[in-house]
């Protein structure tokens, strides 16, 4: 069978298999006109592993059928895609159209909501651009309505409520709109300086978070996290912790019900969420595993925001002492020496090896012989079919997909590889392969015992013990 035929067969068979399994369970796989809700989200989550090779095959089929010249030209201009999405969030379009319903709304009426601040606002061109990829649908000339994809950006608040507190619109949401705004504003501005930075004879080889493309883009000597805390960057600071929630919210119960056996920890065991932000992961854990004690550590400005977050979303947890919110710099000595589990979620990818070694060594110095370190982060797969050199670690290897697909479809459809470049541009840091994690952790006094695997876009759990 030709490669075209093989790819077409993977798509056809995969779709048929998903439809058959849905029919057997008397559920319907959501189509683009089905807006996001818990029931349809649960169906997509359940079939994510079956959908991954189908989506990967569709991408590969497009690449196979495309002529290089228009394909590459289009890819070059698709840099405007994150910016277009950020505009849509800034203009509150998904929530405006949620109130409009299935009939949609004319672009002039959409613009009327924000004309007080921008009288010439015209969202039509941007909406039409996004509609080419089924984010919004143009149902009549200049009349648009939400699709399933665009509804995923809704913050689920009334437009009246959003207009009353624009900077608070992301609070309490699933974080998708916030991360879309972050990608289209702060991150895209940074990305435009990446080439220039990489060819710089000093910055191009730096591991310093203050010598990345971010500093050139934002005209600052400060590392990203310190820049966020400057008074003039309040909008970015409000956005950032909400954006991080998007990476937890997606099928978030998986992280607390599968993988590491949280339920088997003894009553009162102490879980320390290092650099835990406002505590989104801990909140998911505390809601399910009430027999444990928790500490969330992060920078003072983040912990200040965390108190309001917990009061709103899990009142009483902090007051009763089940959860402690404490300001702590992870590069300082770790003062908690009786932790059962140290957990770090999306933290190691924020730092180059030079700095990651430092905070991992701090945790090793504070650990007991039976302390567990759990790193929840992405793992970059090689996109070749060579064997792994870490076969002795349970969960390290993955079963490759059949040719002609790339070996690991879940890696292809996830955000790991663009995130790797984003981390490089923002802070001179990286996503890592398993081999790179082994080397890094060994240097800090830890060994990987096993890896709990999840389907993309969920991160993996790397379970470690002291050497």
TrEMBL record:
Domain of life according to the entry: Eukaryota
GO terms, biological process: methylation
Keyword Methyltransferase: yes
GO-annotated molecular function: O-methyltransferase activity
Annotated InterPro entries: COMT-like, COMT_C, SAM-dependent_MTases_sf, WH-like_DNA-bd_sf, WH_DNA-bd_sf
Domain O-methyltransferase C-terminal residue range list: 212-381
Pfam families associated with the record: Methyltransf_2
Keywords tagged on the record: Methyltransferase, S-adenosyl-L-methionine, Transferase
PROSITE patterns: SAM_OMT_II
PANTHER family: O-METHYLTRANSFERASE CICE (PTHR43712:SF2), PUTATIVE (AFU_ORTHOLOGUE AFUA_4G14580)-RELATED (PTHR43712)
Name of this chain's protein: O-methyltransferase C-terminal domain-containing protein
